[in-house]
Design goal:
- The protein is built from four helices and no strands.
- About 85% of the residues lie in helices and about 0% in strands.
- The longest helix has about 30 residues, at about 35-65.
- Helix 1 (about 5-30) runs antiparallel to helix 2, helix 1 packs parallel to helix 3 (about 70-80) and helix 1 (about 5-30) runs parallel beside helix 4.
- The protein has helices at about 5-30, 35-65, 70-80, 80-94.
- With about 90 residues, the chain is mainly alpha-helical.
Length: about 90
């Protein structure tokens, strides 16, 4: 049976990307400085949640060796939020 953390990790990665994208688009449309504060607060929250998910995924990687491909794929999905966040911050900075 596949570890429960795999679908949770994928959902967290997807929701993190979607929320970040919505915040970016909202800021680009409105130019409201409050959205910058909300965005940075969200980034800090997302970092904490994603680090926790990554730790659990790494533990699952060693506990559920038979599902290593799915776990590694989920780890990659979570880690893809890092360059996405950097790209969004670059857009905001310019």
């Amino acid at each position: 049976m596949e570890p429960q953390i795999i679908p949770i990790g994928k959902k967290v990665a997807l929701y993190s990307a979607v929320i970040g994208t919505l915040l970016l688009v909202s800021y680009l449309i409105s130019k409201d400085s409050l959205l910058i504060k909300i965005g940075f607060t969200y980034i800090l929250f997302a970092i904490l949640v994603n680090i926790f998910i990554l730790l659990v995924l790494f533990i699952a990687l060693f506990l559920h060796v038979a599902h290593w491909k799915n776990i590694v794929a989920t780890i990659i999905c979570v880690l893809l939020n890092i360059p996405l966040t950097i790209f969004y911050l670059t857009i905001i900075a310019h």
